[in-house]
Amino acid sequence: MLFGAHVSSAGGLWNAPKNAAEIGCEVLQMFSRPPQGGKPKPITEEVTHQFKEEMEKYSIKHAYIHAPYFINLASSNERIRHGSIAILREELERGSLLGCKGMMFHPGSAKDVGQEEGELLVIAGLNTLLDGYEGSCQLLIEISAGAGMVMGDTFEELARFLHEAKQGKQIGICFDTQHAFASGYDIRTQKGLDNVLIQFDQQIGLQHLIASHCNDSKVDLGTHKDRHEHLGEGFMGLETFKQFIHHPKIQHLDLILETPIDGQRKKEIELLKTFRLETQKNV
């Protein structure tokens, strides 16, 4: 496993690798555009060169883009759906220019259309945004906590998106530990994690599991709320993350912190590396 965090790219995308290296990251996640809306700055040849140069300079292995928060492929509003599709496609293209490994996004909420129609709209949206796409940046659907009618909170639903989308084999999954826990997937024990990974493999396929957000939870199991906490300070506990890092089936994952931004992430990265060292000693 490689470890990283969501970092700022303020002042220019090329600043993200330096910001990541300062807290000990080996991989990074960033926004390539304002997450709340607004026109992104173009990715010129100069920007691409500068970003890749900084990635190499600071030995950051992989970069990921997180899509804006306002994306909703399941909206009843056609303008919102089409706008979301256009932005996701644009972010994939931008990620490809930068050499990013993947771009993760939340499918959106079906509160205005209902579960079945929402799933069909998401599948249709995936078909449109990937039509003719030949870039290198992989589309990653992030598992959600499932508040209200937010899409993508169960393996069954994620599996349907991948199995029914025309280019579903190209789509990956970003597993968020807190979102999964809030959705009812108990990974706090070895047996629990084993069972969850078996379910994932049977329904989706572990080959689709590309990255994971690494967050403890401010809320208890199955409460369907998106509330991140520092590692070991929430309902999940440190043992959860130690077991996660030690598990042999998911050693290929990039693990990315989205814990509260208050200066603790450097210590959390160091902690994750300590857990990894234990794994290496036990091999």
From TrEMBL:
HAMAP family: Nfo
Keyword Transport tagged: no
Entry's transmembrane regions: none
Assigned EC number: 3.1.21.2
Domain of life according to the entry: Bacteria
Alphabetical list of Pfam families matching this protein: AP_endonuc_2
GO biological process: base-excision repair
Cofactor note: Binds 3 Zn(2+) ions.
Gene: nfo
Keywords from the named record: DNA damage, DNA repair, Endonuclease, Hydrolase, Metal-binding, Nuclease, Zinc
Protein name: Probable endonuclease 4
Protein family (similarity comment): Belongs to the AP endonuclease 2 family.
InterPro entries attached to this UniProt entry: AP_endonuc_2 (IPR001719), AP_endonuc_F2_Zn_BS (IPR018246), Xyl_isomerase-like_sf (IPR036237), Xyl_isomerase-like_TIM-brl (IPR013022)
Chain ranges of the Xylose isomerase-like TIM barrel domain: 18-273
Residues where Zn(2+) 1 binds: 66, 106, 142
